[in-house]
Fold these 2 entries.
Entry 1:
Amino acid sequence: MTENRVRVAHLAVYDTLADWEYGHLAVELRTGRFTGVPYEIRTVAETLDPITTMGGLRVLPDLTLSDLDPADSGLLILTGSGFWDDGGGEPFLDAARAFLDAGVPVAGICGATSGLARAGLLDERRHTSAAPEYLAATGYRGAAHHVDERAVADHGVVTAGPQSAVQFASATLGLLGLATPTRLEAYEGVFHRADPAAYPILMAG
């Protein structure tokens, strides 16, 4: 990918996709308003049939998993959905493994963290989720690496619980090298803590 091309992030979409979990991240990537580096957001699904999110929005995928190539992407985003707790999502986990093998980051929030755990992708990485018990139920072997934080980035994987969409965005932007820790702290100050003192720091660049 040449530097003059817009960078691309792929958002996995499927029925009952949790609308609130990817919003902050998608907006900051697409606009680049606080990073100066805009991304194109492309949706990827198992088929090109429309999916319906948890909030009732109908989304028409841009491409299928069979056409997804990590070499054409800078990030794969996996969000919550009812199918993760039913043991589903294997094709998306295969994609996540391919991305990580290619050195391309994966960001998973809420139920997607259980999928990543089932796939063994959290066994050797620091990570978090809704609760340690939630991941323990998957039978994974990474419990010793679970940490009590809102979002965690380690060895190319970002994880977060469903209550941490702002921190999920911040940790992912940090992993991608798009903002300094000071600016990311200000981002969380504005959008999570409603701290007016953080606003000028965020806008200062």
Entry 2:
Amino acid sequence: MPHTLPQALLRQAHTRGSAVALRYKRLGIWQVRTWSELAGDVGELAAALHQRGLSGNDNLLIISQARPEALLLALAAQWLGASVTLLDPEHDNRAVLAERRPSFVLAEDLQAVQQIGEYRVLIYLDGRGLNHPHAAGLIAYADLSANAPAPACATQSSALAFVFHAGTPVQLSHAQLLAGARTLIAREHLTSDEEALAARVFAASGQARYLLAPWLHAGFRLNFPEALATRDTDRRELGPTLVLGTRESYGRLEQWVAERLPLPGTFSHRLYRWAMQPTPSPVRRWLGRWLVRRPLLDVLGMSRLRVPLLVGPPLAPRSAAFFGALGVHPGHWHEPSPRHAPTDPLLSRTA
């Protein structure tokens, strides 16, 4: 039984090494990494961070959208026993940064780099616009390397894994995340055959609790869209079986459909309204599914969806009615409100 997230990664690499663990898009082409390759990548990054002075007493601060590089570097820091703080790059993080004064930082791009004051090591993903990309302590993610192997993987389950600053600070240990992952896997019957889409920003505790930890524990495939702007297209290509969303993200899809409906009064609009209404007639349900609901699920990239998850506030009534008509009923999992999450944060699930 793994005690930390990196140990869960190593277990998957040992038992399912050749299976695909991660897929991400680059220039419109899907790239894949197996569990063995992923463990090797994380080990090399851990060695590079260790060589630059990161230890178990440190914290790596990440300002990035959901990108595979951010995930791998987070696991590399946790490999060394360090904790990881995740900040939303779309927010003004200067107050948090001034308070924490981080020594080790991963910044996605110039906008994120400009928020950083003092630092010891600053790793960037996109160096476009940087005036001094080779300044002391500043290094491109692609240039991270080490001339020695990584130390042994940390094993302390009570160690802090993630810190989130979206509203009230939330701290999650490895033990909490893995216990929660086991609960979610059991309740939602997750298997290694799931296809999950990581389209939410990383700086949310729900992402770590309901996606990253279950991914590492169950061994399913995690997919990253090329960018936020392409997530809908990428979701249609993938046809994920597991989707994690918020009230806002589900509402955005419902609004996207509403804006593209045929004009009221037309035959197509009347057909849509007819097919989306509940009915006791099995014939009408069958016709409505094949004429409207199934094609609509294909357009949304939800035709294979088996496990829709919702974190945070419940769906708005209009969105709930829309997705309910499509047969999509997101399992609602509450975000924790206290500074320290409960031992099993999944026990508050509601239907």
